[in-house]
Amino acid sequence: MTKKRKLILVWVLVLAVATTGILIGRWSVGSVSAEGEVYENLKVFTEALSIVKKNYVEDVKAKDIVYGAIKGMLNSLDPHSGFMSPDAYKEMQVDTKGEFGGLGIQIGIKDGILTVIAPLEDTPAYKVGIKAGDKIIKINGEATKDMGLHDAVSKMRGVRGTSVTITILREGWKETKDFTIVREIIKVKSVKSKILEEGIGYVKVNQFQEQTAADLAAALSKLSQEKISSIILDLRNNPGGLLNSAVDVTSQFLPPKKLVVYIKGRTGERAEYHTDGERPSYSMPMIVLVNQGSASASEIVAGALKDWNRAVILGVQTFGKGSVQSVIPLSDGSGLKLTTARYYTPKGKSIQSTGIAPDIIVKIEPKIGAKEHPVVREKDIERHLKNDQIEEKPKEPEEVAPIEVAEKEDVQLQRAVDLLKTWKVFKELPKAS
Questions:
Q1: Domain of 357?
Q2: Which of 307, 326, 334, 350 is flagged as catalytic?
Q3: Is residue 393 in a domain?
Q4: What pTM value is reported for the model?
Q5: Does the pLDDT value for residue 422 go beyond 90?
Q6: Looking at 190, 193, 296, 323, which residue is catalytic?
């Protein structure tokens, strides 16, 4: 059978209830024919389907059985592959615009338990006190044991104004606690900016959406009118976004035709993404803030700026999401998210399960007496892909997530400000004759 080639959407994501944290680009995947061993196994599946349909104690629709089988197949792979019903597939297409109904949390599976990676700021989950590291034991009374990530996301999303009850077990708690959360339309404002002291511009990118690059260009233009001499790009707790957006954001800090990232699949086929030069690029001194919640597209931006020595990366190790998911539509309107490749920084480094190492490590220590919450990274999620360039080390003592802090107590931000001040001082020193 001749294999047909077709262009499909490519995703790099951290699964989330509020935001899918995706990276979308172009990737080519061949269709698959049912031949040889695959065909023989399909015969067994057909037999099982027929037996269940005819003999199960209650009447069950063939489509429900098939959908369940597909979900099981995808759930046996890595944690980022999954099946989407027609409704879920439509919802996925809406997510990239940064507006949808939900709670506002990123989730993963750690030690077999559905776990909160991070709540998004100013969302319903954030407001009721959901914390990074919280274990989600039940959703509306249904146990989450053996529940796939995509199913969990589907159950927690919904129409604005409706509520969902999640049962949480937190580190240090003796008993679980129910949180009833009213769903809202989650509107993630992708770019925020302001002037800090002594002409230092500050830009926070919360997610890479369709309008992020344009919003960033407007923010940088406005800051430049204020005569800023340096800039801080804050990518902390940014779960990802659109590939084109990530490349366009990087383009505003690098010259044209610079490699931002490349993707390589099972066959070794390589697709490269370069800066385009369509917008002005700023060359002023720059520091990028990252933490354990910086994932996928944000890691691509940080990795490119680091590899090209364009910025100093400050904070803690990033999430480590370096795999690519192809979004493949099926004939009935449903779809697959299938891991098909890994991505690499300009210097050819895979960050899968390892993340971006900052140039300067600055941790935010919890206050005395404050409850600590364990950090969840890609390497902690069950069935994660191994890094193809290094041998993974045994798990180290568990790190704890930083407590939310005010700007004046944000030691990472303050350290960045201090470094830029020093940068300015050294630049103004007279040169040796």
A1: 189-324+345-375+399-428
A2: 307
A3: no
A4: 0.70
A5: no
A6: 296
